[in-house]
Amino acid sequence: MSWLQLIFDTSREQASTLEDALLELGALSVTLQDNVPEDGVDEPIYEPDRGATPLWQKTRLLALFDADTDADLLAAALNNALADLPPFRAEILQDQPWERAWMADFKPLRFGRRLWICPSWCEPPDPDGVILALDPGLAFGTGTHPTTALCLEWLDAQALAGHLKGRTVLDYGCGSGILAIAALLLGAERAVAVDNDPQALIATRDNAERNGISPERLATYLPDDAPAMSADVTVANILAGPLQSLAPVLTGLTRPGGRLALSGILGEQANAVAGAYRPAFTLFDPAISGDWVRIDGYKVV
After folding, report:
1. Whether the predicted pLDDT of 107 surpasses 80
2. Cα dist from 274 to 31, 48, 264, 278, 282, whole Å
3. pTM of the entire structure?
4. Which residues have C-beta within 8 Å of that of residue 47, sequence separation ≥ 6?
5. Backbone phi, then psi, for 260, in 5-degree steps?
6. In angstroms, rounded to a whole number, what is the distance separating the alpha carbons of residues 26 and 20?
């Protein structure tokens, strides 16, 4: 089977109206993307307001129709429906195994000295490494984003096994559970994963089971249900605003002398986030990856 795809280069103001018109005309799907201009400078949206549907000033809209749809008739109908129809082009998409095509984009990734994130369809690249099997899913966190990578590299460098017993790790804003599970595979004794999205907690439990983590080693909670604890290691990969507001909570959940890593922070936000955690924590110089930074340190005894 094949499909007819219409590609529009439009604006933020016109995108919603155009989307509605295309759906009315029988579009099977409509996708909105950042239309990166010729200068190559994109327009990332990091922290939209709650309830907002953010769009880019230059938006690319992709509409999918059955292959036997007449593109000329569609164009005529759109011209009648819209006063100012943006230019577009039509193309035929040939059938292919879409459910497998996207898998080619995901390969095993190494973080630090020994930790690997490996999709289930790939062979583990290092038999002596620590292998976390993880497939892309609904919850955030596969290791491909710099904010997650910064945390994974940090966890790989921690002494999570300890001399007498393993550490207790708090993963606040757990997403897929990648950080909590990585910590357990690296030697932590127990992890607590917290997220305000129930889907993330389901994904975390599923991913833990897939990696042979017993349920008693990993507990998952919504924020209001999270128990009081004194974590040896606290890691939070969220965003700058929530990290600032969560400073009293994360401070209270981390034991004196415990280690802290915060990610999801843009470079220009680092000072404000760091200020929210001082003087309760001694913080090191931020680790940098592109536009993103990780702030880490230890809680003052």
Report:
1. no
2. 38, 22, 13, 6, 10
3. 0.69
4. 239, 240, 241
5. -135, 135
6. 10
- Sheet of 115-118, strands arranged across: 109-111, 115-118, 130-133
Q: Which residue has the tokens 């009315």?
A: 24
Give the angle 177-123-202 at the CA atoms, nearest 5°.
20
Compute the average pLDDT of residues 179-186.
Answer: 96
Cβ-contact 116, 110 below 8 angstroms: yes
Distance CA 184, CA 160 (A): 8
Three-state secondary structure of 208-277: HHHCCCCHHHEEEECHHHCCCCCEEEEEEECCHHHHHHCHHHHHHHEEEEEEEEEEEEEHHHHHHHHHHH
- Per-residue pLDDT at 23 exceeds 80: yes
Pairwise CA distance, residues 238 & 181, whole Å = 17
Of 136, 257, 131, 120, the C-alpha closest to 184 is 131
pLDDT one-digit tens code per residue, 243-281: 999 999 999 999 999 999 999 999 999 999 999 999 999
| CA quadruple 19, 25, 26, 29: dihedral, nearest 10 | -10
Q: Which residues, including other chains, have CB under 8 Å from residue 112's CB and lie 6 or more apart?
A: 152, 153, 155, 156, 157
* ω into 279 cis (within 30 of 0): yes
Contacts of 198 (CB under 8 A, 6+ apart): 222
The confidence score (pLDDT) of residue 1 equals 64
